[in-house]
Amino acid sequence: MSQYKARREVISTGFVPRPHQVEILQSLKRFNVVVCHRRFGKTVAFVNLIIDKGLRLGKKNPQFAYMAPFYGQAKRVAWEYFKEYGLKIPGSTANEAELRIDIPRPGGADGSSEPDKIRMMLLGADNPGALRGLYLDGVVLDEYGEMTPDVFNQVIRPALSDRLGWAVFTGTPKGQNHFADILEHGRSDSTWYTSVFRAEDTGIIPKAELEAARALMSEEEFLQEFQCSFTSAMMGAYYKTQMELLEKKGQIGNVPHDPGSPVHTAWDLGINDANVVWFYQIVGREIHLIDLVAGSGEDLAFYAIKIKEKAQAGNWLLGRHKLPHDANARELQTGKTRVEALEKLLGRTIDVVARHGVEDGIHRARMVLPRCWFDRKNCEYGLKGLKNYQKKWDSVNKVFSSRPLHNWASNPADAFRYMAMGFDEMDDQRIDGTLRRNLPRRASSDYDPFSL
């Protein structure tokens, strides 16, 4: 039985770890990557890890978090476990509205007599901007492969810095994405702990049950869900064939800015989701995707400033800006559309891509992709999004839905779709309604990207 020492008494949460869970809990370092097959029991183990770490930490007002790709998902997966185990600690209280458990301490763990509390929170990676300014002593990032790739580096990592907090990246593989990348990083760094637990090795799921599951699942599904394979093909990936062909042909690599062509942008606009802007050029019959900007919780001015900074730094001549049809919606607070706001910020006319069915847009994107060349470094986030953009699985009918799975990958993929649907061969010559040919390159000393 797992026991936790709180002040002068020993408290049992009732958690009895399996042998492989014991191995994890006894081996953890500051940064950890734990890949688990389905039904391994990682959620229960890491909920109890947070409770244990909280009770033992000798710092004032420690804060810990369990993060899932979506806030609602964190609630469904872990909240009942937090209450089941956390509320066994004397004095602990659960806040249902904010999904947190507080454990008061009459005297601080740092040796002072001033009371403090341990706070354990559930968070969602779907609105990382709302998490800025938070400090954390430890965090578990569950199903990390389904989160926005930059949520750790831009939000969570800084939150751990001043208190030297720890982190666990865990989940089941979802293709060769940023979860696979961080596993490889951890394996190459001796200060990290990494482990992969396959169903055939743990013995948690009976062999007969595994064989029955394998008979009903595709081989790719089985290898991914039960054998923790990152190399099995992404199930239901829309652009799998096209992206593999681009890699094979060398169309993903170093793609520099062409000074003879304007730089156009294609946008996906969200509220809590990550907003994405692709930067692309039309060079002969090729489409060069040279850069990308992504953010969350930022206003339009943020993106306008980023565009201006990149244009000035690269001596770019800006071309057309492609926005989705919903950018024409009038906001109640300002009475203006986002198109009107961006036209003022960018000083030029915005192209609104006509409303279309998602399936039509995906088809168009597939037709456009063979013409595309991607800068691997500058477009890393977007490339991962295109490779991981997939159909939603219908668990009732055991088929893929005709609709995409909405996760972090849909943001860069949607922005690319708007680019594909709004793409016009004449965009290079038609800037703000004026036909232009042989556009001159301006000297960097007097260059203004918003001046034509």
3D structure, described in words:
The protein is α/β, with parallel strands linked by helices. It has two domains: 223 residues, P-loop containing nucleotide triphosphate hydrolases (Rossmann fold, 3-Layer(aba) Sandwich); 207 residues, 2-Layer Sandwich (Nucleotidyltransferase, domain 5). It is built from 14 helices and 21 strands. The strands form five sheets. The chain has an eight-stranded mixed sheet, with helices on both faces. It has a seven-stranded mixed sheet with strand order 11-17-14-13-12-15-16. A hairpin with a 4-residue loop joins strand 18 and strand 19. Helix 12 packs across helix 14 and helix 13 crosses helix 14. The N terminus and C terminus are likely disordered.
